[in-house]
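Inputs:
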Amino acid sequence: KQEVTQIPAALSVPEGENLVLNCSFTDSAIYNLQWFRQDPGKGLTSLLLIQSSQREQTSGRLNASLDKSSGRSTLYIAASQPGDSATYLCAVTRYSGGGADGLTFGKGTHLIIQP
Amino acid sequence: DVKVTQSSRYLVKRTGEKVFLECVQDMDHENMFWYRQDPGLGLRLIYFSYDVKMKEKGDIPEGYSVSREKKERFSLILESASTNQTSMYLCASSPPGGYNSPLHFGNGTRLTVT
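Outputs:
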């Protein structure tokens, strides 16, 4: 059974710092890995999707990497801003022989950027 | 922009009631999903659907059913609500062949069962 772990569970840093969020998964049979952002009381917003054949994706100040063989992904946030404060979730799209059957999520990293 | 709309932001129901949670997407997406989110447990997949009138069980389908009569609408049904179904429910959709397309989520329905 696929398990996704995110470290750290919470992180508080001063504005302007570069930071790294970590995600690991136990089963390398995945279609892709996605990073989401969730603001309090809201749904999830997709940030980046890395296909299983890719190594990284970039969007603005965000860069996500994927090492499928070791079951790891990182989300790098450059020059953090208070508006980046949110919970960041990592999820893998599972492959079950017949096709993809949904995402397995980590429990998230709660990020606070101090002004 | 894709819009996934969940009909209620907050619901309060009594134990034993039949509860319908509605989700509508406006981008002709084939794939639709229902998750619940609980503190300490994260998001867990309840049911999903890849087409009209088809459904697949996720990780925690017990106590739930779903209906997909039209492509744009995916309903989650709690046949007899129980207090352990108090949770945030999130609906999501993705386009056809969308294993490598990002999921689009609604804003969630926070259900309280008393």
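Remarks. The mean pLDDT of chain B is 91. The first strand of chain B starts at residue 4 and ends at 6.
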